[in-house]
Amino acid sequence: MLELFRSLPGTAVSTAGPEAPAGFEGASFAIYDPDGDLPPQRQQPFATVLVRDAPGWDVESRLDRDGAFRINVGVGSRRYAELLGHPPAEHAGHRDDYDYAAEDVLLPHPMYAAQGWVAVVRPGPRTSDLLRRLVADAHAAAVARWQRRRS
Hints:
single chain, 25% helix, 6-stranded antiparallel sheet, alpha+beta, 3 helices
């Protein structure tokens, strides 16, 4: 998936090193920054890859299993509702409907569903094409946000 992120024009991919908070080392972030000059406080990723649990914060995907990782994509409120059947603001009432450790299944992001983020643990044949489209759409939305801010 990192290859897909890197193939998107103007996208910077950063990967957290050992200095990152516990559980976030090895996490990768796709940020639209075509000029490479966004200050850190403006670097909002449109997609991420996590490779381990963040103890005390984000453990529901059980990324401590061999080979487990999770792709996360900011799809926005409208698309989230189309994909999951309820708006992001109502996610709390649907938490028990999901197994956040299920593999190759489109899920609400376990921590950021209310912000319109979705996730897939260990993508495979059921979700790969959809995930590629969602990442491309999230990139297009990031481009549009960047252009609005520059004008």
